[in-house]
């Protein structure tokens, strides 16, 4: 998932260029936010986490290993932040209850299919949801997804397979 | 082979391709993080200098008697990293 000019922008950003980093944010914000929106409860939470992920990526630009795409790096950070956010939400059961009561009002999906798909996605365990988001909803390779999620390749494939099967069963579509 | 599940995901784009508001928000957060980091570094340096100055004053008193402009010189020298940082950022921001 490398975009043209990413390597140049990344090397400039590593040297301290704000313009280059802003260009990287512009090129990859859609992918990172879309990934997070499928993982967390509300779009607002997803955008907050995406912002944090980009800021963390900025502070750790020198840690990107050679050959790793910027998008893979940011999505990895975003996934870990989403997991931490989930743990935080679990700890606060009262806040959970408040959030669940607000959730129906806050979400106004534009399409009936989307609502069904979102609802079906929410029933998956977070690892399956993340794997399906990356490899089915987006066009990440299994290897990239494994790098982002920090899981073995076989585990990622298994998550995708199980997630797909469950989604197809819930949505009533054929599992191709 | 058509993939029904992929088609459902693709049916509605979740996030716009460009979102200037989000990008500006991220860059503002980066700026805040950079500011906090710099302030932290400056506080550490200032405290180190203060402690070192207090600790070393008895030892360097004879030198300061001869070189009374030394503190001013040290302050001027300490501005050089800031000048470097400004010049580097200006180079990248050049249109």
From TrEMBL, chain A:
It holds the Pfam family Sigma70_r2. Residues 24-91 form the RNA polymerase sigma-70 region domain. Residues 116-167 form the RNA polymerase sigma factor 70 region 4 type domain. InterPro entries: RNA_pol_sigma-70-like, RNA_pol_sigma-70_dom, RNA_pol_sigma70_r2, RNA_pol_sigma70_r4_t2, RNA_pol_sigma_r2, RNA_pol_sigma_r3/r4-like, WH-like_DNA-bd_sf. SUPFAM superfamilies: Sigma2 domain of RNA polymerase sigma factors, Sigma3 and sigma4 domains of RNA polymerase sigma factors. Keywords: Sigma factor, Transcription, Transcription regulation. Belongs to the sigma-70 factor family. ECF subfamily. This is RNA polymerase sigma factor. It comes from Asticcacaulis aquaticus.
UniProtKB/TrEMBL annotation, chain B:
The chain crosses the membrane at residues 42-61, 67-87. It comes from the Bacteria. Keywords: Membrane, Transmembrane, Transmembrane helix. This is DUF1622 domain-containing protein. It comes from Asticcacaulis aquaticus.
